[in-house]
What does this fold into?
Amino acid sequence: MKIGSLTLDNITILAPLAGITSLPFRLLAKEEGCALVCTEMISANGLVRESKKTKQMLESLPQEKPLSVQIFGSDPDVMAEAAQIVESCGADLVDINFGCAVKKVVKTGAGVALMQKLDIAEALIKAVREAVNIPLTIKIRTGWDRSGKQALMLSKIAQECGVNAITVHPRTASQGFSGKADWSIITAVKKEVAVPVIGNGDIITAQDAIKMQSITGCDAIMIGRAAIGNPWIFSQVLAIAGGNDVLPIDITHRFETMIRYCKMSIQCFGEKAACRMMRSRLGWFAKGLRFSGKFRESIKHLSSENETIELIKAYMVLLQPERER
It folds into this structure.
């Protein structure tokens, strides 16, 4: 699949997830075959104002390429400048958020609010398109009602403005992440535009990803919440797409991934901050395992790398059959 000048190895894309798709998690997804990883949503205002914390979100490594950086804002000039910063930092693609329904974002006129103001949305897309040479994509919702009219209108505008691909999360602004995603909106957008359309929403298993592509005709699949604590979903999608069976995740591989995630996070954020993160995030990887509640309780007060790794290893031993101990 091609997005402008960028060629992807396969159909899998990691969605931008606030507080989750930082560099360490993106590297895990990449190791499992994800073709394109995306940063969490980044404030254009923060980039332009040179916020140290915001700029840190652009930190990257060659191993995760190609990398998409998603920005949000409501001022065309600010968004254009932010996109130039993104390009200068080595991103392979810039994505504009038209889908965030969080109140504090919508109140600023950004995110899904722009789907009610298509004139501003058009000006914003044009400004960013003129500002950068790398491929440009947008991520949209159904809109503010279930009809999908706003999604179709914005998609056509985006194509005319030179956008190279469109991601559709077919929920309304008021739905947030609740209720059911209406995949028929993805189908409708796909029929309306010639640029690649990426489907997103209600992908829970690898089988769901293949089902979405079959039903909607979308060109690629963006996976978000289903990848939390389960980066293996990308290799599972590729296995099914290749006509192979999905195999259970080897318990040793699961725990080695947890340890590597911990170490990469410490390298990225420092021991103190990373261990605070691990207090909740390691629990993602234990979902569905025996004694997961006991493990989550044990990591509530993590404070050092050694303690974290010891508890991960202790949990792995607890899950091993008696004869292997």
